[in-house]
């Protein structure tokens, strides 16, 4: 099924390695950095004027684009997922309105089938004119807490098509020659559950683009239109030249890997593959995603915009000092395959959950490939982005307004080639994303946070341990007509290690844990009823481990136990280090080095057999309480329903192949 919208030309046209323009170096540097400032000023404006707590927590990005829609510069604090899509959306506005664009116009768009992310991310785009000619566009994209659809927060796991996900905004004019089109704006915000908040964000985002416009016109007045326009093009060409020159010193060849989404609800259990092939041939960076699975029957699909964004963001991680604009995009090309796949789901496939689905799988797979090309920068898999949404009526006030408790957590990044992974940090989806202040959440919503702490044993074991994840729990108070939804993944395709490192822990939400009503809800669900007094808790995973955990020095394992990053029990099971607790309050522990040396020898002899143990026997031992969840995962590579203990045989087979490739094949 196809929409009337046709697939755009995804190639970003630049002159590549052409010689620098006639700008003198000083003027070029001044203007290049001034472009960054113009975007950062948008960020400062939106932070001070937005209505949404989600946007205030930095779920937004901005960009300055040239007259053709190509990105001139991103800001210094934008989140990764947005930055590779903003030029697509600017081009969509240009394509839609062509010559019918005037000074004072502002356009809105959130359409993921026109290069956007998901429906909650609404962009406002303002043309910048000088001497009657468009010279640039300013754009701000912010995540609205609700955009309509079947569930509060607009994250409906059960959606198969976009019609249940919320309002699709194709390019539309909100200001016309400086006149606010109130009827159009009212139509948009009235399709959300928080129209007053949405209207406030609409004005705040538009005004942010006006700040960028004023800054660019100040530069034009000082340096001339010709100079500023030339600098916009040269800034892109400059970045492309840097990337191409860097590639000259790197090995040439082809690298391949596969990562997975947990399952396709329409096909039962079994991991959903996302295949990535990377080629370096001295002429650029080439990706091929063909062979990835068909689109899944849930909202964990990615459109072409977000797939390209994942490719750009994953690659950019290994070029951290290079500015990000369309010059970078021009050095990277990708064959993402035909429409209808999980990485190129066209209209009308549901795509809101792309962020927890293909997006970070692509990023982590790209990390793995570049880790082989630049081993000094190697990094194992990071935790999966997750969103927990509780929505209903707030009974703390007489008018019972709608509320959306919209929460995401920090987690752990993968162990690295020379150090442990980062703990309790933002997802790779958006390193600039802030953890929402609990006090603000509790003031705005009837949800009381009961626990928010580092998760012991959540980091994947390795010579360099994965960073630690977080456990967060809450209780619903004074609310009615409330449901909870969760967008995540990696309850089955668990965060993996590399070079011999071990996996982290599975994601998933528990309701009323430790009570007679305890229930494991999993890592993707929608509209589960929640009543006042109900509690919920979930962990974020840590990062995967890097290198054989049996090579981690005794003293580093001891420090992890003292810091409560690793338990005494897992120190023995995962690292082969026997530690005796002397006085926990005084942080006094002792390593039995002789016994630990002997235990490591025993583990080295036994662990190849653990990975070929009968999965059904392993599952039975888990249900009987003879082994725990981390034994099942890290020793046996077996995947279960963590609530019931039911074995997933196909998933286990695929997960074991992944562990053999990334872990056991590197053990000595």
TrEMBL record:
What are the recorded Gene Ontology BP terms? glutathione metabolic process
One cellular-component annotation, GO: cytosol
Instruction: List its EC numbers.
Output: 3.5.2.14
Q: Name one Pfam family in it.
A: Hydantoinase_B
Which GO molecular function, any one, fits this protein according to its record?
5-oxoprolinase (ATP-hydrolyzing) activity
Top-rank lineage group of the source organism: Bacteria
Query: Domain named Hydantoinase B/oxoprolinase: which ranges?
Result: 24-549
Question: InterPro entries annotated for this entry?
Answer: Hydantoinase_B, Oxoprolinase-like
| Hydrolase found in the keyword field | yes
Keyword annotations of the record: Hydrolase
Q: What is the name of this protein?
A: N-methylhydantoinase B
């Amino acid at each position: 099924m196809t929409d009337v919208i046709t697939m755009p030309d995804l190639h970003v046209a630049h002159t590549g390695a052409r010689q620098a323009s006639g700008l003198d170096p000083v003027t070029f540097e001044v203007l290049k950095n001034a472009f960054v400032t113009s975007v950062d000023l948008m960020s400062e404006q939106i932070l001070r004027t937005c209505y949404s707590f989600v946007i205030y927590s930095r779920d937004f990005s901005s960009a300055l684009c040239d007259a053709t829609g190509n990105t001139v510069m991103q800001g210094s604090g934008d989140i990764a997922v947005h930055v590779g899509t903003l030029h697509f959306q600017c081009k969509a506005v240009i394509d839609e309105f062509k010559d019918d664009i005037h000074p004072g116009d502002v356009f809105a768009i959130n359409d993921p089938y026109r290069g956007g992310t998901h429906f909650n991310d609404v962009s406002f785009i303002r043309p910048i004119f000088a001497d009657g000619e468009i010279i640039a566009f300013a754009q701000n994209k912010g995540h609205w807490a609700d955009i309509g659809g079947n569930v509060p927060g607009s994250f409906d796991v059960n959606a198969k098509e976009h019609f249940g996900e919320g309002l699709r905004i194709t390019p539309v004019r909100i200001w016309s020659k400086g006149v606010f089109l109130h009827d159009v704006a009212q139509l948009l915000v009235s399709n959300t559950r928080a129209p007053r908040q949405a209207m406030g964000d609409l004005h705040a985002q538009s005004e942010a683009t006006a700040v960028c416009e004023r800054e660019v016109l100040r530069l034009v007045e000082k340096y001339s239109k010709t100079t500023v326009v030339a600098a916009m093009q040269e800034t892109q060409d400059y970045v492309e030249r840097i990337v191409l020159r860097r590639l000259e010193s790197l090995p040439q060849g082809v690298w391949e890997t596969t990562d997975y989404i947990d399952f396709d609800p329409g096909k039962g259990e079994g991991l959903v593959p996302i295949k990535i092939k990377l080629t370096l041939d001295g002429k650029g960076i080439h990706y091929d995603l063909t062979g990835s699975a068909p689109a899944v029957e849930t909202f964990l699909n990615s459109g072409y915009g977000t797939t390209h964004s994942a490719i750009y963001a994953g690659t950019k991680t290994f070029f951290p000092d290079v500015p990000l604009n369309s010059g970078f995009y021009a050095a990277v090309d990708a064959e993402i395959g035909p429409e209808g796949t999980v990485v190129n789901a066209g209209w009308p496939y549901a795509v809101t959950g792309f962020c927890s689905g293909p997006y970070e799988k692509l990023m982590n797979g790209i990390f793995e490939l570049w880790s082989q090309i630049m081993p000094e920068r190697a990094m194992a898999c990071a935790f999966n982005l997750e969103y927990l949404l509780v929505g209903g009526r707030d009974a703390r006030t007489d008018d019972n307004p709608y509320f959306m408790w919209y929460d995401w957590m920090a987690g752990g990044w993968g162990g690295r080639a020379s150090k442990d992974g980062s703990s309790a940090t933002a997802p790779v989806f958006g390193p600039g994303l802030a953890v929402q202040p609990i006090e603000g959440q509790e003031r705005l919503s009837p949800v009381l946070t009961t626990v928010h702490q580092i998760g012991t044993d959540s980091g994947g074991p390795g010579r360099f341990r994965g960073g630690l994840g977080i456990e967060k729990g809450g209780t619903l108070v004074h609310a009615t007509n409330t449901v909870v939804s969760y967008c995540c993944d990696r309850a089955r395709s668990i965060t993996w290690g590399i070079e011999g490192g071990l996996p982290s822990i599975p994601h998933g939400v528990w309701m009323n844990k430790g009570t007679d009503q305890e229930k494991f809800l999993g890592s993707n669900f929608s509209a589960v009823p929640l009543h006042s007094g109900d509690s919920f808790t979930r962990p974020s995973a840590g990062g995967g481990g890097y290198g054989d955990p049996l090579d981690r020095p005794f003293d580093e394992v001891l420090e992890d136990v003292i810091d409560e990053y690793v338990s005494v029990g897992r120190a023995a099971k995962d690292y082969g280090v026997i530690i005796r607790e002397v006085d926990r309050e005084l942080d006094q522990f002792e390593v039995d080095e002789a016994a630990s040396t002997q235990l490591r020898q025993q583990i080295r002899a036994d662990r190849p057999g653990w990975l070929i143990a009968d999965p059904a026997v392993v599952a039975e031992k888990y249900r009987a309480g003879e082994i725990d969840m981390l034994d099942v995962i890290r020793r046996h590579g077996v995947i279960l329903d963590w609530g019931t203990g039911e074995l997933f045989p196909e998933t286990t087979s695929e997960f074991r192949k992944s562990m053999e490739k990334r872990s056991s094949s590197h053990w000595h």
